[in-house]
Amino acid sequence: MKKLFLRQIIVIFLMLTFILLPGYGQAGSRSHDREEYVLDSSAPSRTFPIMRPDDLTIRKWQDRYERAPRARIDERYHRRVHPRVVAKTDNTGIVSSTNLLDLLTYSPSESQGSCGDCWAWAGTRVMGIDLNTQQAKAANLSVQFINSCYGENACCGGWLSDVVDFYNSKLMAIPKSNTNAYFQDDDFQCSSRGNLSSVSCSSISTTTNYPLSSMSIATITTTGVAQATAISNIKNILNQGKAIWFAFYLPNSTAWNNFYNFWNNQSESAIWNPDNYCGQKWGSSGGGHAVTLVGYDDSDADTANHYWLLVNSWGTTANRPNGIFRVKMYANYGCTFSRLSAYALGFQTLDIAWGDGGGASSDTIAPTVTSFSIPSSSTSLTVSINTLTATDNVDVTGYMVTNSSTKPTASASGWSSSAPISYTFSSSTTSGTKTLYAWAKDAADNVSASLSASITLSLAGTPDLVISALSNQAKTITAYARSFSIRDTTKNQGTGSATASTTRYYLSTTTSKTSGSVLLSGTRSVPALAVGKTSSGSVTVRVPSGINRTTYYAIACADDNAVVSESNESNNCKTSSSRITVRY
């Protein structure tokens, strides 16, 4: 009986040990959460249409890709995302994943069928996400609109620039819910020569539409730069709430069979690696495909598990209920194939100005100053700022503190990109209670309402030394008589006592002291002066040899070596009415 009981205890202990072991019965690490990518070049159970352009067409597409303006990389979005974007951050506050799928209105089962118009599907979905980001309008936009009204057989392939050309001619997008706007060319092919589409353009209703005033293409820089820069640029565009039109080429049927099997057989957690084919020879069975890049995840400690998230236009499979797949993030962005006049991977996005208020300048929401505090009292003109924070629906780009309740303009001087830590009142400020106002602005030049705080200044008096009287006899300076006597009175007209100072004397061809004035030998020491007190005295000064022979003004300057901190440092000098003539 004791042996049986002991055996049961041992069995229970072993079962608990295996259950609690890391990686057994638990995920253990995130690398176990995904299916490993498998290369399988066997004949696929199902194939899908791809674009098979000739070399001339590829060269044309690549030329437009390279000549397109570069996508704007907004420094604000390296560490944050657009407020409409779903994202996660790590424990340092850096964005670790972004997902724009919530901004895309689509049905995963929608498929291009046998039509090679993936370029139109990917471009239309970039537009749909942009419409939602900018205007919070969720619409499943019509792909059939392009197929029927493009003017060429869309099933023969195209590029994002063709999407731009089409919509700049129509200046509207329409939902698939419009009459005949749902996709009906799934059985159409490039070889269908009789008609350009199974649906005539005139039969598609445009009654419900989303006007746009302009659309342009922007290429995201991913080649000719470091891999880390390429990745950062793609993330930045996604963080802005903009989807990406991603095109890729594969060089031969073996590579395409691998991709078909990846799509058909693997799950949405598997990460496709496009690097397997870099350097291979481009052949007659090579082709291209375009999809929509909608997110990323680099939260795993292992960079091998970092990926881009993409929406395909091949419908769904048993393992892909959302019609999506993942692509390796740390890929070779400079990948090429011999005999192909293009890079294997291409990344572009759209800049759209929606006709009823869309576009980059549609932000009309001003920031809010959420906190502003300063000490309750100070004995100095420079006051520390304890707190100054602000929030905005996009981002705060400037801060300002003023002593006026008048709202500053966004272009006014004095804005700083970070919250100031102190404020200095002007030298003419007197003691008493003062009010300061904190402001914030954003990139769209919206300026916040102010948040105010008050402080009581108890300022010690500040001296102000001036020459209140100056006299000398008119004198002609010769080689044998180079000295003359000058008398001045120094007065402290400030509000505080002045420490001892020194008065110095100059000759000047103008009535003010300038950089060209001649310093005379001879100074007068002025004792400390209380408020309103004066000090008078005479000094014999000597003119240096070698100066220009002309007539000069004599000038006396109080505290000329600036040892006394004064309320006004620009009123220390006075000019005599008697002239000094130099003739040697």
What's a quick, concise take on this entry?
This protein has seven helices and 27 strands.
What CATH architecture of the largest domain do you see? Alpha-Beta Complex
Structural class: alpha+beta
- Please, how many helices? 7
For this structure, what is the CATH homologous superfamily of the largest domain? Cysteine proteinases
Task: Quote the CATH topology of the largest domain.
Answer: Cathepsin B, Chain A
Subunit organisation of the chains: single chain
Shape: elongated
Distance between the termini: 132 Å
Number of strands: 27
In the CATH scheme, the class of the largest domain would be Alpha Beta
Number of domains: 3
Helix content: 10-25%
Give the amount of beta strand, in percent. Answer: 25-35%
Sheet having the most strands: 10 strands, mixed
Rg from C-alpha positions?
39 Å
Question: Secondary-structure blueprint of this entry?
Answer:
Layout: H1 2-20, H2 55-67, E1 86-89, E2 95-99, H3 118-135, H4 144-149, H5 160-170, E3 172-173, E4 210-219, H6 227-239, E5 244-250, H7 253-265, E6 271-272, E7 287-297, E8 307-311, E9 324-328, E10 345-354, E11 368-373, E12 377-378, E13 382-384, E14 387-391, E15 396-402, E16 422-424, E17 432-442, E18 451-457, E19 465-472, E20 475-477, E21 483-492, E22 501-508, E23 518-519, E24 524-526, E25 534-542, E26 551-557, E27 573-582
Parallel strand pairs: 6-9, 12-18, 20-27
Antiparallel strand pairs: 1-2, 2-7, 3-4, 4-10, 5-7, 5-10, 7-8, 8-9, 11-14, 13-16, 15-17, 17-18, 19-21, 21-25, 22-23, 22-24, 22-26, 26-27
